[in-house]
Design a protein that fits this description.
about 50% helix, 12 strands, single chain, alpha+beta, eight-stranded antiparallel beta sheet
Length: about 325
Amino acid sequence: MEHSFYHQQFEALGFHPCPAPQGLPPVGECWKIDPEQGDGYYWIYTSGKGYDIKIHDFSYHEDTVINLAIPECLSVTYYHSIAGEELYPYRSLNSRVVKSFLGGHRPFRALIHKHIPIRSIGIEYRPAYYETSLRAQFGDQYVSPSAAFQTIDETANFPEMVHLLRQVETYRGEGLPASLFYDAKASEALSMVFERHQRLNSRKKARLSPEDMVMLDSLTAYIGSHYADALTIDRLSRIACMGTTKLKRCFKDGYGCTIAEYVQKVRLDQAEHLLAYTDLSVAQVAQAVGYTAAGHFAELFRRAKGMLPMEYRRMTRR
């Protein structure tokens, strides 16, 4: 992945080189979005050793479709804030999550909602870096790093990675200390991904059968169509053809979260759409996605999306 590749991508997206605003690391490069398209910047530190560190903090004035061909790479990113949909495959883009991406296999296509800032910190690795680093650290235990990053996919349950990426985001060193710091954190983050994959993969192999996974996939499809209903554990266990204790264990092993957390995510993703594109009141939105108490819904939305429902609506309709 050549340095000039990102220059071309930034220009295609309407970004132009600029001095780094106060509060950003003193090393690296900064690009500012064209004021006619949006507000904010894109900062990148290119190590020269096979990895990049990226900080996003920008928003678009209008809903914007991004279509990028990404070279082969692996990345891990924490999103403080984002709103929109990934278009291929289709799914919501969520904040307060750690998300992985595998470049070189398919283009990145997404619809980014207007006025909601994309605020994130991430590390991106090129093949020469992760293959050399992982083989050196894990030797005979080395497995495909792509599989390890796919295990992350998107999760709100990776606190050690969130902590590391926030350390990187707030670091303000220069010169050799900065180079050593970023090298160490890039290596540590990669190790975390690999170790997490080993831990989760061994647990799944030990506890989930192919038949169990088929039933869990059917259950999540049911939840996606009936999220507004009263989804009791007894009802869900009957649909999954499992006892309640087994269902809870298998679901956590298979999806990395509890059933309640999964249902909440589905409901709040739908609420995000209703707030942006309908005139339903907050109470009506809450009821439409399965919550009887508007106050409880508003607090859950704030925790998941980083702002209250009416704040989200105001920002999307400016």
